[in-house]
Write a structure and sequence with these properties.
With about 300 residues, the protein is an all-alpha fold. It has one domain. It is about 80% helix and about 0% strand. The longest helix has 29 residues. It is globular and about 45 Å long.
Length: about 300
């Protein structure tokens, strides 16, 4: 189908926007680490069921050793490292500003793609990165702060967590692209990524004695429903569609379209979380996205 990759990327942005708001609500009760652990586990159950229905097996036994290694590393870098910091940033800064900081992921991916994917940055690419960083900074340095409760840290802690989260997500994308070049399908790739992340987060939980605490968080029905909604929209539908998009169109085009997701995040947040939308917040997000478009559609 024509524009299949572009349509998948746009749907990814919409699902990620909805998922960010679900996770912001659940994180207020569960905390970032427990939330990440539970939503990854739920996403794995959904993905396994989908792969069983599509290919007759909940595990992609047809994947090569190289594909499994690259995708497992991608899951650890993206879901465990990147998303833990992303959720922390979102809880501190709010879904709108937290997701705007995630706009740094595509420029970071462009830098990582130079040594790992053999891509080169030209003057237009550098211009796009400057525009993106300028839009993010414009939003974050807004003096008229929305009255959003900050959970677990200062503004600077939220910004630092957001930068680390973007770095993890960009690294995960580059590793996934390396595996997709070998021919594995996006759903199978997502199952491997999420399986590695799930194993890691529960091993850490067991080693630190946090397994029971994580499971007790499920007693909070409202937070659990929000976590389930986010798991369905984010690591199940969103991540699978993102890999489909990357495999059916140019990586840069897909990343540029997916970077649209702060806009639906902010719009939904204004209704659900009463996070104020100022002209500067919205304009900063639009400038950041415009920079990403320049970066990848050069």
């Amino acid at each position: 189908m024509r524009f299949a990759g572009e349509i998948a990327a746009l749907c990814t942005a919409l699902f990620w926007g909805a998922g960010s708001n679900f996770f912001a609500e659940a994180g207020k009760t569960m905390g970032a680490v427990v939330l990440n652990r539970l939503r990854i586990t739920m996403a794995l159950a959904l993905l396994g069921a989908a792969l069983l229905a599509a290919h007759g097996s909940p595990w992609p036994y047809w994947a090569s050793g190289r594909e499994i290694g690259l995708l497992a590393a991608s899951g650890l870098v993206g879901f465990v490292f990147g998303d833990n910091f992303y959720f922390r940033s979102m809880l501190i800064l709010g879904p709108g500003r937290g997701s705007t900081l995630a706009c740094l992921a595509p420029p970071m991916a462009a830098l990582l793609a130079v040594p790992f994917l053999g891509e080169r940055l030209g003057p237009t690419a550098l211009l796009g990165m400057v525009i993106t960083l300028g839009g993010v900074a414009w939003t974050l340095l807004e003096r008229e702060r929305a009255e959003h409760p900050h959970f677990g840290g200062s503004i600077m802690a939220g910004v630092g967590a957001g930068v680390l989260g973007a770095l993890g997500q960009s690294g995960g994308l580059v590793l996934s692209k390396l595996a997709l070049r070998d021919g594995i399908d996006p759903l199978s790739a997502t199952v491997i990524r999420v399986s590695a992340a799930t194993a890691c987060v529960w091993l850490v939980a067991a080693a630190s004695g946090q397994s029971a605490r994580s499971l007790r968080a499920l007693r909070h029905s409202r937070a659990t429903l929000s976590m389930l909604g986010g798991a369905f929209c984010g690591p199940f539908l969103g991540v699978t569609l993102s890999l489909y998009a990357v495999s059916h169109t140019e990586t840069g085009v897909a990343a540029a379209i997916m970077a649209f997701y702060p806009i639906p995040t902010i719009l939904i947040s204004s209704r659900v979380h009463r996070e104020a939308i100022t002209v500067r917040t919205l304009a900063g997000a639009c400038v950041a996205i415009a920079g990403i478009v320049v970066l990848f559609l050069r």
